[in-house]
Amino acid sequence: VEGAWAADGKGETIWDRFGHENQAFNNHTVDTACDSYRKVDVDVYLLRGLGVNTYQFSISWARVFPSGYRASMSNEGVLYYNNLINALVESGIRPVATLYHWDLPQAMQDEGGWTKDFIVEAFKDYADFCFSQFGDRVKDWNTFSSPWVVSHAGYGTGEHAPGLILLHFVLLFQVTHNILKSHAEAWHVYNDKYRGPQGGKVGIALNSDWAQPGDPMKPEDVAAAERYLEFMLGWFAHPIFIDGDYSQVLKTQIEKKKTDCTGSVPAVLPTFTAEEKARIKGTSDFFGLNHYTSRLVSSSVGGCVPGPQGVGDFRAYVDPSWPTTASDWIVSLPSGLRSLLAYIKNKYLTTHNVPIYITGNGMPTEYSGDPLNDTSRIDYLSGYINEALKAITDDGVDVQRFTVQSFMDGFEGKQGYSERFGLLHVNFEDSSRPRSPKQSAYFYAQIIEQNAHIITIIRKVHIT
Ligand SMILES: *[C@@H]1O[C@H](CO)[C@@H](O)[C@H](O)[C@H]1NC(C)=O
Ligand SMILES: *[C@@H]1O[C@H](CO)[C@@H](O)[C@H](O)[C@H]1NC(C)=O
After folding, report:
1. Pairing of strands 201-207, 287-290
2. Which strands make up the sheet holding 315-317, listed edge to edge?
3. Of 44, 48, 225, 313, which one has the fewest beta carbons inside 10 Å?
């Protein structure tokens, strides 16, 4: 949303480069976006109107450290985040800051980015700096948001910046390895230096679909669905929340493919030392979850196919009865959220008992028709919020936060501005980027006012 891609000395990021290389939809770029860099007062005023008690935003590493390193620190960049944070706090809105939401400084990419070890120390120093500057007011930190997408789409399929297809899904395992170490180092910096004086929480926001066995009576499908979850959520969650290491399911499967597919080498899972495992285990003060959709999963694609489906030996598809959205990957299955929350509670939070924060849920509408009439978003959100409520009241899951993705329409990565996730519409044709509430904004404001209980009533009428 920030835009101002080169203002006040900001460094270039991999998404700036991606846009300038015409790799996003219709050659869209992130140059101006919603111009939120210049609209702090307007945006915070609109957030007050919605009635939210938190606002989750990301800090752009290259706005704070243009080269990625502390020596390049930009006072203007720091000032922008200070102004935003102060405006939120003055409005009684809790700032929730994400340190990394995919926009690596290009200068660090030029050194190899997440594939190289140097990134761990660089990220740790950037995190340390942010805690020291903003932590007196920011008490909630996500180190990473949806890191699976960084490894998978950025360094695997190449659909996202930096757009590298690295040896058919070999180096993406190294990328996750370095992200896990970076996350852990940032958590330890906070734990050692800032937790005492600042009293906040540091965690990670992991994205995952829910995976249902195609045929629940077939053990192969049940195992395939489990592998799907292990390759998406477990790849990150198992080391952080269970034992500092990758799951046995992941290790066994990757070893099997490595043996079966000698020559085409579909994957190599790096290993952690005992010291690294101890350093990673338990490094999250909450379980952040970004969740948008579900899949049916069956076994198997077989053979030596590169990519997660091939390495994981599963086939993912959707049920034609699930409502589709403007996005080719999001279908609506609200009950999937409840299933996933119960799965997380039972699998990851039995010994490491922390609350779950839903750090992202939402869907895109198309950029056509009446942009303010988004009844499909109201249906989607009412369904998902209601299932989160059932998880709390009926399943005893400790869900403490729900975050809608997103406050306003913005640059949606590969899809540019063609997919609209916002509660607020943004007119990108108008240079002043006016924002207008959609019907879903009024709906969501009402939910907040009634603390979600209206949902129960809506679903009784429409569903049960
Ligand atoms: C995107 O840029 C390329 C290269 O300049 C050009 O050939 C193409 O027509 C552009 N596409 C659109 C939709 O503007
Ligand atoms: C909004 O769109 C829906 C579905 O396209 C339509 O049924 C409804 O009448 C529209 N509502 C308004 C207020 O325009």
Report:
1. parallel
2. 210-213, 294-298, 315-317
3. 48
Assess contact for 426 and 359: CB atoms under 8 A.
no
Choose one of 20, 21, 27 to mutate for the ligand 1 pocket test, by most ligand atoms within 8 angstroms of C-beta.
27
User: What is the whole-number distance in angstroms between the Cα of residue 439 and the centre of ligand 2?
Assistant: 10
- Taking the domains of the chain in order of start, what are their residue ranges? 37-403+439-463
Residue 461 pLDDT more than 80? Answer: no
What is the 463 CA–ligand 2 centroid distance (Å)? 20
pLDDT value for 455: 47
pLDDT digits (tens, 9 = 90+) for 387-400: 999 999 999 999 99
Is the pLDDT score of 267 beyond 80? no
Res 458: pLDDT: 45
CATH fold, domain 37-403+439-463, is TIM Barrel (3.20.20)
- Look at residues 289, 311, 315 and name the one whose alpha carbon lies nearest to residue 209: 289
- From ligand 1's centre to the CA of 19, what distance in Å? 11
Q: Which residues, including other chains, have CB under 8 Å from residue 195's CB and lie 6 or more apart? A: none
Sign of the alpha-carbon torsion through 214, 220, 223, 224: negative
Who's near 9: CB < 8 A, 6+ residues apart?
A: 66, 74, 76, 77
Distance CA(210)–CA(208), nearest Å, equals 6
Instruction: Give the pLDDT band (50/70/90) at residue 460.
Output: very low
Angle (CA) 211 212 215, round 5°: 145
**Cα atoms in the Cβ-side hemisphere of radius 13 Å centred on 267:** 30
Residue 26 Cα: closest atom of ligand 1: 13
